[in-house]
Amino acid sequence: MQEADPTDALAVLGDETRIAILRALAEAEEPLPFSELRRRADVRDPGRFNYHLSKLREYFVREEDGGYALREAGSRVVAAAGVVPGPTTSVDDAPQPDAGTDNADGCPVCGEEDCERLFHVHLSVPWR
Predict the structure, then answer these.
(1) Tell me: the pLDDT tens digits for 59-79?
(2) N or C, where is the chain less crowded by C-beta within 10 Å?
(3) All domains of the chain, ordered by start, with CATH?
(4) pTM, to two decimals
(5) CB count in 10 Å sphere of residue 31
(6) CA distances from 127 to 6, 9, 108, 124 (A)
(7) Cβ atoms 75, 84 nearer than 8 A
(8) What are phi and psi of 63, to 5 degrees?
(9) Residue 120: which of 91, 97, 84, 93 has the closest Cα?
């Protein structure tokens, strides 16, 4: 998989409908089906909604069995933008992995399976 161009990814965020979709997903406690996500984002035209959702799926949203959910990048964008009110979590409050446990799901910080970073600078996501 080739590296995503940050300019292209950020350009996807330049639309109010897409921000409404990200906000709806951030506020949800579980993946949302297409129709429920469209309702929560307050978009009446299913074709228009599908167009914007498909743009977000390139970088920020993933499709799951139960519907749509934020990817790690989507969660970070929402947290950085502050579009979901709620308590903040400091790095000290974030759950720490147990020493000696194998993290089969990937990096305990970013979630990537093949992460080779020595340092991570990120925002904690209070709703995940």
Answers:
(1) 999 999 889 999 999 998 888
(2) N
(3) 6-85 (1.10.10.10)
(4) 0.63
(5) 18
(6) 25, 23, 17, 9
(7) no
(8) -95, 135
(9) 91
Token code pair at residue 128:
């995940």
Written as six digits, the tokens of 28 are 């949800």
Residue in the structure block whose two tokens are 């093949």? 114
CA distance 57 to 128: 19
The pLDDT tens digits of the residues spanning 16-52 come to: 999 999 999 999 999 999 999 999 999 999 999 999 9
Distance CA 81, CA 36 (A): 23
